[in-house]
Design brief:
5-stranded parallel beta sheet; 273 residues; Arc Repressor Mutant, subunit A
Length: 273
Amino acid sequence: MKLLIVNDITIEADTMAKDIPWKDYGIDEVFTAYSAGGARKIIGHTPIDILLSDIEMPEEDGLSLIHWIQDAHYDIDCVLLTCHADFAYAREGLSLDCQDYITLPAKYEEIGASIAKVCRRRQEKLASLRLQDYGRSWLMNQTGHMDQDTETSTHDSPQELVEKSKAYILDHISDCELSVTDVAANIYLNPIYLNRVFKKETGINMSQWIIKERMELASTLFLTTRHTANEIALQVGYNNYPYFSTVFKKYFHCPPSQYVRQAAEPGTKTPKP
C-alpha cells in the first residue's frame, strides 16, 4: 500500500513519515507533500492508495483536496488530521466518505492503528472487486462474449459503448459520487477497458467528459434560470461550492459571477472554454 501524507508544516510531515513504523501498519511506501497542489502532482503520476491529510492548509485545504480526488475519480481512501475538534469538519469529512477523522495531538500508535484499519478495509474491497471481475469474466466466457484480448466486452461497438456511457452520465450528472466505475458497472464492463475505449472514440477520458458536461450544464443554468450559484453547483454534482467555482473558473477562465455578468452585458461575448 502507498501512503501520501499532506501537511503544510514540513517538519511535521517529514517527522511523521520517518518516525512511524509504517510497514507494521501495512504501508509499503510513504510520500509527502506540503500543499494540496503538491499532493495533486504526486497523485497524478503515482498510484496512491491512502491519503493522510491535514485539513487546515493555506490556499487550498484538505477537504477541497479530497473533493478534487473524488471528482477526478481517483480510487484513494482518505483520512483527515486536524488540530480542532470542529463538528463541521467531521460532518463534511463523513459526507466525503473519509475513512477516519483524527484530532491532533495524537500518538503515532493511534495514527498507525487508524491507517492499519484503512489498509485492511481496502484490501478486502480490492479482493471483492477482483472476485466480481472474475465472476463477470466467467459469465461472459460462458455466453461467448469474451473478446480476443480477454477483456470483458459485449456485442456493442465502441461507438455504442460510448453512447451508452454518455447517456448514463447525463442521467446521473447531479450525483456527486458519479464515477467511471459506476458507468462501467451499468454496462458490465471493466472500468479501465471502458475508459480506454471512451478516450479512443472521443479524444478525452471519461472523467474529463463528465467535467465538460457538468460545466456546460452549469453555464446553461446560470444563463436561463434564477437558481443560486450553490443550487446550480448541487444540480451539476458538486456539494462543495468553492471547489465547483474553482473547476468552473478553470474551464471558462473566469469565476461564475464574472461569467454571468459578462453574459448580461450588451455586446459582450459569453466566455468560452
